[in-house]
Amino acid sequence: MNPSVPPGPADDPRTAPYPDLVASGGLRPALASTARELHVDLGLAGDGSESDAQDWSTARIASPRGEVRVNLGLGVRRFSLTMDSGRGYVWASGSTTELSEAVGAIAFWREGATLVELGARFPFMEFSRMSRAYEDGNPIETQWAILMESDEFPAYRELLPALHADPGLRRLFPFFSHWTLRMTADHPDAGAGEIVVRRRAGEDYVLWSSAAPDRKVGFRRVEDVVRAAAALRPTP
């Protein structure tokens, strides 16, 4: 629940930045009204006024690429947009003080705009390198590149390129959780199974599979870790 801007009289200090929303009866009806004025489609035709706190100050709009969420700022006029994929990552996000800009960005996204096109027309919308990679269809390759270029995990600097050099392992999606390297065949699917590597203080590596978490094996050499990890990779 988002009680930041509850329904109430126009003189409520929390609703003061949003006189147009007060007049419309909430965020969702205001979005629908502005969309009609701009002659764009948000898929909100026929929506009426909302009454409770959450519906007054938030809106969820369907799109072919996942849900678009709109939230109001607290004490200041701001429409925050999140283009969610529904697959564990966000396409783009941003905020604007103009309701018409928020409506325009949502409509443009729903029409099938690319991330680059969205950012060019609505500069307040931002997206990450990984979001662009998901759009381009190469998230695994990009994720490996990001990790190998990063200085955030120096203890794994030698191991990452060695794992990536293995043809089978580089088809897995790598990511860090609690300073532990994990590789999975399907990152958004928590049940897909993982190969896990942790660097210990003694400079050795501990390797195991999420399918058998009690079978941890230690290695000193990077090449041995790679060989053992490749053996744990699920057969397609």
Uncertain segments of ≥5 residues (pLDDT<50)?
48-53
Percentage of residues assigned to helices: 25-40%
Integer-rounded radius of gyration: 23 Å
Q: How much strand content do the residues show?
A: 15-25%
Main sheet attributes: strand count, strand direction, barrel closure? 5 strands, antiparallel
What class would the helix/strand composition place it in? Answer: alpha+beta
Element order: H for helix, E for strand: HHHEEEEHHEHHHEEEEEH
Biggest sheet strand order reads 1-2-3-4-5
Tally of individual domains: 2
Work out the number of β strands.
10
State the shape: elongated
Count of discrete alpha- or pi-helical segments spanning 4 or more residues = 9
C-alpha end-to-end distance? 42 Å
What is the mean pLDDT?
89
